[in-house]
Amino acid sequence: MPFVIIQNVSVLALEIGKQTGVLVAQSAPPPPPGIKDKYRWLQGTIKNETQFQIQLIDSYFDSGRYWTAPTDIAPFTQMTFSCCNSDGSFLTGVAGGTAFRIIMNESVHYDFAIGWTAPSLGSLKASIVPGSRGVYGYESASPEGGSFMTDDVYEGKDADGNPAQFKIHFSAAAGLEAMYVVKEVVLNTS
To answer: How many helices (H) and strands (E) does the chain have?
Structure first.
């Protein structure tokens, strides 16, 4: 398992734990007014349980459109987007994907894509996979959602300047109010 050393990153396990606890307790907002009047709709919430900025890099639609478009996600916050069938469409659902980039510092980043479907016929689906294109998330969507952890182990410094390693864990749960979680997992602190 390769190590990636990240300069100027503090891995403060206690602070990460506190911030994550606050975010975990925060529920997703209700769907925006009017969206439930659409033939097919879906809301997705991404919880950024890391100390890193997450940047929006790509979107893809197989069908439908955004009601509320996704945005960048600040550390230890959540972002909610919503989508619905296209206006004037006939018996279509909403299906697509969005790609994001975790910015760990000026030279280290990690790209991932989420996917979702709320079809006219068939199952609600979600996914979260490595990749820099929204279509990768869409193509991987399943009723079970999914999860994975980075192969790389990242290394920063703890509060005392000692090496501290972490990975990033990703999970997706399908539903009309789909949930995606990006979590920094501290492996050790010296």
So the answer is: 2, 12
- Looking at the DSSP bridge assignments, the partners of residue 54 are 73, 102
Whole-angstrom CA distances from 112 to 20, 29, 75, 127 are 20, 23, 16, 10
Burial of 75 (0-12, 13-18, 19+ CB in 10 A): middle
Q: In 3D, which of 51, 55, 73, 56 has the Cα closest to residue 6?
A: 51
H/E segment holding residue 14? helix 13-25
First to last CA, the chain: 19
* Encoded amino acid at 37, one letter: D
Identify the residue whose tokens are 């998330």: 137
**Which two structure tokens, joined as six digits, stand for 183?**
């979590």
What are the tens digits of pLDDT across the range 113-125? 999 999 988 899 9
For 168, residues 6+ apart whose C-beta sits below 8 A from its C-beta are 50, 102, 110, 149, 150, 154, 182, 183, 184, 185
Give the global pTM: 0.90
Q: Could you tell me which of 60, 80, 54 has the C-alpha nearest to residue 69?
A: 80
pLDDT category at 189 given cuts 50, 70, 90 is: low
